[in-house]
Design goal:
The protein has 720 residues and is of the alpha/beta class. It is built from 33 helices and eight strands.
Length: 720
């Protein structure tokens, strides 16, 4: 069974809410959709996450959090949900269809947070997933209901001011002022303060940080003044809304001018962000460069920002920061009032444009894994940068369409190498739709779009855009784009079983790459694809030479992603040569790399080959399990084995031998067992399996055959 989930760890102790927590866990157990509702700052998310943790053991396929705060548009709701579920989908299917099919036979709890600005598309997604996935339950947290039939609501009230609110305030106060406690001397003031703040957890936490400089009585006196000042204009507003705005507004008033300005500018970020990004985006125009760190630290100290040691490098990485949604909205209001939104959004876009450029260059280096982690960590902000580049501010056209095209294309390694083809095609398609003259940026978008379409199995779309790219590149003298267009046309021919054409196009592209001095992961991948094309035509020796040359270059440069494909070719050649142990070692290394990068195309090819190798080791049932896992994963890749006779040959050989060894019933059972495995579980099963025949291989009434060497021909005709 695959235990899975992505719930974040709790940074502070959960206080109170025992009756609500008990009721919520029972509601989730009884209802398909439960929504915790309430005003900003009341603790909806915290309660939902605590309940989800308590329920984790009840869901076979885990508990998964989908965070939608700061998402730029409704179109990305489905992509974000797929990303949260770590569902790489390489097909041309709508992400919603891929999600529904992934969840169809799973028992899983989805926690949906931050949907308020996108309630309508979120409701549509949830309704369809619940309809198509009977084992799915959803726990949502928002200021209002999703409005779906069957939804059960838990309206969350503030904490009782005379008990749990006091406890929460006391704990948070002790965290900023060691030794603080509620005593007979300050008890009345603490209770009154909690009542004034209506027991709202966020308001209490913001007030608690003031005890560094003030007594409880002084906080209460000043807060009482601000309460009347800030809410006098709207006497009809609910008390809890006034309390939250009072607490946030008072925190804002007590900030220095630089801190207030930084707060406003930080509102352009989404999700987590690091100090370097803050320094670039927010410095200048009232905040000197050397003031940024000090102002940032002050906002952290005042609980305006939270600081987390979960940078791109994982534990021990650089500190990253996050702003709660209510606090972010407050800052965004000030930024708009200052008339500075366009400039700050532009700087935000420029920073992440630079980050994408750096990551693209560093992808071909020993820092490839770091690049993949960095892009994953910064994806929410990269999305905002793409949205601004391609759409501009609401009601205004984009300033520089070519910038948006450049950014979408520069992230090719994210779309292709890190399992985000569906989202990549969304952004690339939007970039191509922009009216723009021929340019290097537009040409790059075209060949990257074609590359994505090839891997998704959309041959017609790939052929059209790649031919246009080639023709436009020739007309404008863009030698780089012409080389890439020819390369990807060769890749299309490869998966379409036209091996002579594939060899001709890719060989031409490689010559052009050498002529212009181009060397990167794409160029090396072209050589791997050339190796595949010649191997499928029977020249295995030449294929091995090409793949070994790529392996050497990859190891010299620390490149891992293309290395995985070169290892796959070498593993396949070793199996053809009757060297099963060597074939397993090479293919296992290939799978481990593909799995680390979430590259589903490479991973499923390696699984298919490992199934064949496993059958040859005398373990037909286990081989069939791996075939079942690969079959399930192909649904997320697209056309099984690209619809190619050549790529399908190892699968066909394995299936024939396993069926004969097991019988139909046992073979079907093994396929079903494998079909329940996700990528993580399938990779673990393939990589951790003991060598040689295993116990239980007699399932279905067949004895496990002795290990033997296979040496079929390279062509599908001979293999058949």
């Amino acid at each position: 069974m695959e235990t899975a989930g992505n719930l974040p760890s709790e940074l502070t102790r959960f206080v109170g809410r025992a009756p609500e927590l008990d009721r919520l866990t029972r509601m989730v157990a009884d209802a398909r959709l439960t929504t915790v509702t309430g005003p900003g700052g009341v603790g909806k998310t915290r309660l939902a996450l605590r309940a989800a943790r308590q329920l984790q053991d009840r869901f076979r396929d885990g508990v998964w959090l989908v965070e939608l705060t700061g998402l730029p548009g409704a179109e990305l709701v489905d992509h974000t949900a797929a990303e949260a579920l770590r569902l790489p989908d390489h097909t041309v299917r709508a992400p919603r269809d891929a999600l529904a099919e992934h969840l169809a036979d799973r028992e899983l709890l989805l926690v949906l947070d931050g949907f308020d600005r996108l309630a309508e598309p979120c409701a549509g997604l949830v309704a369809e997933l619940l309809r198509r996935a009977p084992g799915l339950r959803v726990l949502a947290a928002g200021r209002r209901a999703l409005g779906i039939t069957g939804e059960r609501l838990l309206p969350l009230d503030p904490l009782p001011a005379d008990s749990e609110a006091v406890q929460l305030f006391s704990e948070r106060a002790a965290a900023v002022l060691p030794g603080f406690a509620v005593t007979a001397a300050n008890s009345a003031a603490v209770t009154e303060l909690c009542a004034r703040l209506d027991g709202l957890p966020l308001a209490l936490e913001l007030a608690a940080v003031r005890l560094r400089a003030l007594s409880v009585e002084q906080v209460l006196e000043r807060l009482d003044d601000r309460f009347r000042l800030l809410t006098g204009g709207d006497p009809s507003a609910p008390a809890r809304h006034r309390a939250l705005r009072t607490a946030i507004g008072w925190s804002h008033e007590l900030c220095s001018p630089a801190e207030r300005l930084l707060w406003a500018r930080l509102s352009v970020f989404a999700g987590r962000f690091d100090l370097e990004a803050v320094e670039y985006v927010c410095a200048g125009g009232g905040i000197a460069g050397d003031e940024v760190v000090e102002a940032l630290a002050a906002l952290v100290a005042q609980s305006v920002l939270s600081r987390q040691e979960d940078g791109a490098g994982g534990d021990g990485g650089p500190a990253r920061y996050r702003m709660l949604d209510s606090v972010r909205e407050y800052g965004a209001g000030w930024l708009a009032a200052l008339g500075d939104e366009a400039r700050v959004r532009r700087r935000h876009r420029d920073w992440y444009l630079g980050l994408a450029t750096w990551c693209e260059l560093d992808w071909f280096s020993p820092r490839q894994a770091e690049v993949a982690a960095r892009v994953a960590a910064d994806l929410p902000n990269l999305r905002l940068a793409l949205e601004f580049s391609l759409d501009g501010l609401p009601g205004e056209p984009p300033e520089e369409p070519a910038v948006g095209q450049y950014l979408a294309a520069a992230l090719w390694f994210c779309w292709v190498g890190c399992g985000r083809l569906a989202e990549g095609r969304y952004w690339l398609g939007r970039a191509l739709d922009l009216p723009a003259e021929p340019s290097e940026a537009r040409a790059k978008v075209m060949w990257v779009y074609g590359y994505v379409a090839v891997l998704q199995g959309d041959s017609a779309a790939a052929l059209a855009v790649l031919q246009d790219c080639r023709d436009e590149a020739r007309a404008t003298g863009n030698a780089v784009a012409e080389a890439y267009a020819l390369h990807r046309l060769g890749c299309l021919a490869l998966v379409s079983d036209d091996m002579p054409r594939a060899e001709r196009f890719i060989d031409d592209a490689l010559a052009r790459y050498r002529g212009i001095g181009e060397l990167n992961s794409n160029v090396l991948m072209a050589q791997v694809e050339l190796a595949m094309s010649v191997a499928f035509q029977g020249d295995v020796e030449q294929a091995v030479r090409l793949a070994e040359e790529v392996t050497d270059i990859c190891r010299d440069h620390g490149e891992r992603w293309t290395l995985a494909y070169a290892l796959y070719v070498r593993g396949y050649a070793a199996w053809l040569a009757g060297e099963p142990e060597r074939a397993r070692r090479l293919t296992e290394e290939s799978l481990a790399i593909d799995h680390a990068f979430d590259d589903l195309v490479g991973a499923v090819l390696a699984l298919e080959l490992l199934a064949l190798i496993t059958e040859g080791e005398g373990a037909p049932y286990e081989a069939a399990v791996l075939q079942g896992a690969a079959g399930r994963l192909w649904e997320s890749v697209g056309l099984r084995l690209f619809g190619s006779r050549y790529f399908n040959a190892p699968h066909t050989v394995c299936e024939q031998r396993v069926r004969a060894a097991l019988g139909e019933a046992a073979y079907a059972a093994a396929l079903g067992e494998g079909g329940r495995l996700g990528l993580d579980a399938a990779a673990r099963r393939a990589l951790d399996r003991p060598r040689g025949p295993v116990r239980g291989e007699q399932r279905g009434g067949s004895r496990a055959p002795a290990p033997r060497t296979h040496k079929p021909a390279a062509s599908p005709e001979a293999a058949g």
